[in-house]
Amino acid sequence: MSNEIQQASILTRTDVNGVAVLTIDNPPVNALSQALRNALVHHIREVGNDKCVEAVIITGTSGRFIAGADIKEFKGPILDPSLPDVLKAIEQLDKPVIAAVEGVALGGGAELALACHYRCATGDAKFGFPEVKLGIIPGAGGIPRLLRLVGPKITLDLVAGGRPIDCETAFAFGLVDKIIEQADKIGAAIEYALECVGKPLRRTSLLSVATFDADAFNVQCVAWRSRARGQASVIAAVDAVADSWDRGFAEADARCRLEFTRLRTSDQANALRHLFFAERQAQHVPGLDSVQAANIASVAVVGAGTMGRGIAVACLIAGYCTLLIDVDEEALRRAALAIGVAVEKTIKDKAGKSDKASQILSRLSTAQTLQDANNSDLIVEAVFEDIDVKSSVLTQIAMAAPPQATICTNTSYLDIDQLAGAVSSPERFIGLHFFAPAEIMRLVEVIRAKTSGEQAVATGLRFARSLSKIPVLAGVCDGFIVNRILAAYRREMEYLLEEGALPREIDAALERFGMAMGPFAVADLSGLDIAWARRKRLAPMRDPQERYVKIADQLCEMGRLGRKTGAGWYSYVDGTRQLDPLVEELVVNSSREKGITRQPISEAEIVDRAIGSMISEARKILAEGIALRASDIDLAITNGLGFPAWRGGPLYYADRMAENQG
Ligand code: 3HC
Question: Would the pTM of this model clear 0.85, i.e. be above it?
């Protein structure tokens, strides 16, 4: 017996056997906009007053539950009804309310699920509290409710880390009461709701926080605080959890809401929201939205070195049949082993378990000849960074690949327009610049050569997105967006060395500014040889009058290529970074040779010049049309160079600085 009460709206009510099913349909992601909050209040009141209704289900359409509060509303004052009031109304209903979760339940969506008396979920469900990534903390009872359901330890990891958990983990934690079949979500949820009728209502806010190991929790708080790197929301999340567990629900809830409200309009939250929308906008390239990307089922990666392996891992995890090609049999054998380890680790980090690794690895095959790529839909060349080597490999790939295949190069610096000359039918050729470690780093620069066709570019963007990466479109120039800015930044840092600073002082200053790592520590980590090769390549074109700092070349000539050789800008003993007097000697010698009197350089000057060099190169890149938008550069530099996301990226930061000075 089904009674359709309201249709074609943001929230539809359908009654089945005394169960009112409230289905949210608020595209694109079922965000809790004011209109939806109003609709929820209205329907909750109605079903509460309806004597025929014995239980209520809240669910979502289009394979999603709710992606959280409507972020677009965060700029101005939040209009009534507030989300906490909506959730209060749900929890106080005197008949069981069941959240039936499919797909994402994030932020306010997860908080809404926690306010329901019971939760059932399909296997693909994901629960998460990503608020810290937006510069805020959960503001609708999420923290005090989580504390009561899963205890302080898990609450802290979920809220300070912001990473979602899968359905199985949520079930193991007690966030989900029943796992249901996706194919019959509504039927199974109704059956479960009827089981709940007559049971005592479980209001999460009335539960008490289970006893826990306070010392271990304090250690965990310290660890999270030390990882915050200047991000206020992470510190606020830790403080909110630590401050809430021993308070009554209403008091803790009010304090968290207050902190959420304070943070919502903070500079950091504005900056992080800028990046959130920048990430979405970067996927939309003028003129390409209507272009059909090619269907990709199988990928070939050519070159079994570090980059090739990382790209293969990313493809495998995303579900692609992946063929790894290298002429060297031993390199392939080693790569297959390394890929196995990386897949296990990535899966474990992502979902807290490793049981799917064998299934993922069954999609991997290897080959020694390029002819084997004759069935691949997309081929990524990741061989040695040398124009002749790459050109020759690309010519062979183009001959072996199916004519409709998309061919990509993973060069970091080389001229893609020149490489395109090596590819027959170059309209199917683009750059896909992954960053090391490719299985982890989310940024991929999609490089449009002069000859690249629209479909190839659209395919590159969609393919990178399908790997859960952040694609940013760039034009051809030396280093594209990220490495070009990196080169300018490093050059300025090397000038600072000659003028009086030491590597450790520069690294420390920039780490305090919020960079993930200082420039010299990063150079050691990624290896000094690629930038060295680039400098040698560009040497004939260099203006002899240009100021040139030779210290990095000298380190490379000594075989100090960074961590991998045990020494670079620092030396490494058992993997631990140590200062090296030899480097200081080289630095001081370089100043002396140029007749520069070394002066103390303040931390503020280091930061100003470092970030200033990025900003000025970024502006040139924008002016030349290498990047489409300022926000694309911000996105690329925060994700590719470890620029602090809470500062919004170099150009956003420059605008805010100008506003503050103006
Ligand atoms: N509010 C408003 N718009 C949102 C949104 C949200 N919470 N989440 C996504 N959107 C928009 C995007 O801007 C995009 O718009 P566009 O098409 O105009 O560019 C569109 O929805 C589709 O988004 P994606 O391209 O990201 O779609 P995907 O399918 O790749 O990913 C998703 C979907 C996993 C839900 C992802 O969008 C996401 O992670 N969203 C943010 C979730 C989040 O952070 N929630 C917490 C919000 S804060 C909160 O709830 C506070 C509470 O404690 C009070």
Answer: yes
